[in-house]
Specification:
about 700 residues; 22-stranded antiparallel β-barrel; 37 strands; mainly beta; single chain; 5-stranded mixed sheet
Length: about 700
């Protein structure tokens, strides 16, 4: 165990020790706080969370996953795969198994356009606008809830929620019961995980703490695509009826055998686990975040909150450039290191039928890039730095009149990017800046008891990421600067999003139907050639759209509960020119955007401690390129899974069988124009876990 791991483990042990030790603070001088008092204290610490996450009660395009639902479907998979059964979402792991480098797309749009927050702290890397979930394994293990808001919204800090938002709220120490738990998990392809957690509960004086430490690993489904990782999350605070001070954070590290290139279809027919990368290509990355938040209720109608955070990450990965002289491989080692600090402030004011939120945020971000050829890592061939800064302001007003509620949101963002070249680059620093105003309006009307109409419309803009500006180049110098400048050649993208839905809620279940139309201007779409890591480069497309219908429902029956959702999507790129061939394409479907997605799950009622479930997922065919060629598509597939849980006393056993019938499935891939290359999903896999928990732990 490394030093950071040891420190994290010690922190968790201290928390658990405090849980198991006698607690006089809870019993001396009176009873612990009541449930109403605890809820009131905890609500103070969520002022910023409420400001940045979408309101699930005012949109039919929002899905809320609670802790029970997250726990029931968790068998050690990364967050994108754990969220796979939600509407309009596709995901894959390049290793094929439950963990490694995993990615999600919502309505066919990649995760760099999905704003991800953790307790109100933005997590998308400002330069690339993406979060690598492999850096923060088991991040959902500490979640109290996840809200997925499909469609554009205004955001409040960090990356613009251009396609969607994914907001994770961790469990609050103020509302987590005193207790401790331990989980061990083992499964196919050498997959394993252990997790220990503990919470002190809320003392009479208002103090509380919790922590979770996870260690996990896998051999990977694809050949030599394994990883080993650890993560830690902790939170502690002081909560009174009118004030809350909370510090929370996480740390994670993952070492991965790389599998970022898809395998040729011809190779997969011979070996379904083929990985074209070598055993020598691997990486090691770590990420840490800490935030401090203070919130106060100045009177019954006025609350204020201030949050400061620091996010850092560092690591390196190897890329092979073929055989080296004298034998072996010529390996380039790419190193990345960033430090990111920021703050967000928000105030809430309420009246009997009106409420308003105002806030502001700012951040400063630096990331160093370098590359050296092994074994001379101390002599990099280049070392450059990207600097991203942003200031933003946001506001929300809500007015209720009878059965109707109107919401108006407005955000202003002013990001800037500055590139500091290597000393030997022979060019001056490069810089660009943008400013965006994003309005949004929403209305909900209760048409009858249990039936609500939900409407929303608004526009959001997003600046190009570093990879967009530099066409995937990691270093800009005198040899390539002419083709990459001015930086204004890549225009910001804008979407106008309109959502209209109905929500019905009754004693037997819930049903939501949502129709959407996302109209894009200058979408930065994946229409370029492939980068060195197998990702298509992106360029502006003047006009494009995504329109569709999403249905999501839950039904309670005497035999259990049925969850089901589906989406039908029509997406088109109006016109673009393929750089490699010079061919002009018009009215073509964008890549990796299935028209049809269906999910259904039955979860039985508990019987003598036993709970069974069966789930089915259907993913339609999708284009591997933007050329409309029906031969170059990822085929449709249907995958089934089942699970069985058994609880007795403090122990709970679970068994999951994923891809029950061993279906051949390719959830993602690409093409070179003639052949198909796929990332395979794992075949049938079995995972077994046991969890031991003291009374009150969940």
């Amino acid at each position: 165990m490394t030093r950071p791991q040891a420190i994290a483990a010690q922190c968790v042990v201290l928390v658990i020790a405090s849980v198991l030790a006698p607690s006089g603070a809870r019993t001396q001088g009176g009873r612990p706080p009541s449930a109403d008092s605890v809820a009131r204290r905890d609500s103070l610490a969520t002022v910023i969370v409420r400001a940045v996450r979408p309101r699930a009660d005012s949109s039919a395009a929002a899905t809320v996953l609670g802790r029970d639902q997250l726990s029931a479907t968790s068998y050690g998979q990364d967050a994108p795969l754990a969220l796979l059964r939600t509407p309009s979402l596709t995901a894959y792991s390049d290793a094929g198994g439950p963990s490694g480098y995993s990615y999600l797309r919502i309505r066919g749009i990649d995760q760099s356009r999905v704003a991800i927050t953790f307790d109100g702290v933005p997590l998308n890397d400002p330069e690339d606008q993406v979060l690598y979930f492999s850096n923060v394994p088991d991040i959902l293990g500490s979640a109290a809830s996840v809200v997925i808001g499909r469609g554009a919204s205004i955001g409040a800090a960090g990356t613009a929620p251009y396609a969607a938002s994914l907001d994770i709220r961790s469990r609050s120490p103020a509302t987590t019961p005193r207790g401790a738990s331990f989980r061990a998990l083992a499964g196919s392809f050498g997959t394993w995980q252990t997790a220990v957690e503990g919470a002190t509960g809320l003392s009479r004086a208002g103090f509380a703490a919790l922590g979770r430490f996870t260690r996990q690993g896998t051999d990977g489904y694809r050949e030599h695509s394994g990883n080993d990782a650890w993560s830690w999350h902790g939170s502690a605070g002081w909560f009174t009826p009118t004030q809350a001070l909370r510090i929370s954070g996480f740390a994670g590290s993952s070492g991965t055998q790389l599998a970022y290139l898809a395998a040729a279809e011809s190779d997969l027919r011979v070996n379904p686990r083929a990985n074209p990368l070598s055993r020598a290509e691997g990486d090691r990355f770590g990420q840490q975040m800490v935030s401090v938040q203070y919130a106060a209720e100045l009177n019954n109608r006025f609350r204020a909150s201030l949050q400061a955070y620091r996010n850092s990450a560092a690591g390196a990965y190897d890329v092979s450039f073929g055989p080296a002289e004298g034998g072996g491989l010529s390996l380039a080692n790419y190193s990345l290191r960033h430090i990111w600090t920021g703050a967000t402030a928000a105030v809430e004011r309420s009246w009997p039928n009106f409420a308003a939120t105002l806030g502001a945020s700012a951040y400063d971000y630096h990331r160093d890039h370098s590359m050296a050829m092994r074994p001379t890592l101390t002599s990099p061939e280049y070392a450059n730095t990207g600097v991203k800064r942003e200031t933003a302001a946001f506001g929300r007003a809500m007015w209720r009149a009878g059965r109707a509620q109107l919401t108006a949101d407005l955000a202003y963002r002013a990001p800037t990017f500055r590139y500091r070249p290597s000393q030997n680059a022979g060019i001056a620093p490069l810089q660009a800046g943008w400013s965006f105003v994003s309005p949004r309006a929403a209305a909900t009307v209760e048409l009858s008891r249990g039936l609500t109409l939900m409407l929303a419309t608004g526009t959001t803009s997003r600046e190009p990421a570093r990879g967009d500006l530099f066409a995937g180049a990691d270093d800009v110098n005198s040899t390539n600067v002419a083709g990459l400048t001015p930086l204004t050649r890549v225009r910001p993208e804008r979407v106008w999003d309109t959502e209209a839905g109905l929500r019905w809620a009754g004693p037997s279940g819930v049903l939501k139907v949502n129709a959407f139309a996302m109209e894009f201007t200058n979408e930065i779409a994946p229409i370029g050639t492939l980068s060195v890591t197998g990702l298509p480069l992106r360029k502006n497309v003047r006009r494009s759209y995504r329109r569709g219908i999403e249905i999501e429902g839950k039904r309670h029956t005497t035999l259990g509960t049925v969850h089901a959702n589906g989406s039908w999507l029509q997406a088109r790129l109006a016109e673009f020119v393929d750089d490699a061939s010079g061919v002009r394409y018009t009215d073509v479907a964008p890549l990796l955007t299935p028209r049809l997605l269906l999910n259904a799950e039955w979860r039985g009622r508990e019987w003598r401690g036993l709970v069974a479930s069966v789930a089915v997922r259907r993913q339609g065919a999708s284009q591997l390129a933007n050329d409309g060629n029906a031969e170059l598509r990822a085929p449709a597939f249907t995958i089934a899974a089942t699970s069985l849980a058994f609880a007795r006393g403090a122990a709970q056993w679970r068994i999951w069988i994923d891809n029950l019938f061993g279906t051949t499935a390719y959830p993602s891939g690409y093409t070179d124009g003639t052949a198909r290359y796929f990332y395979p999903a794992a075949g049938r896999s079995i995972t077994v876990s046991v969890r031991l928990a003291t009374l009150g732990a969940r």
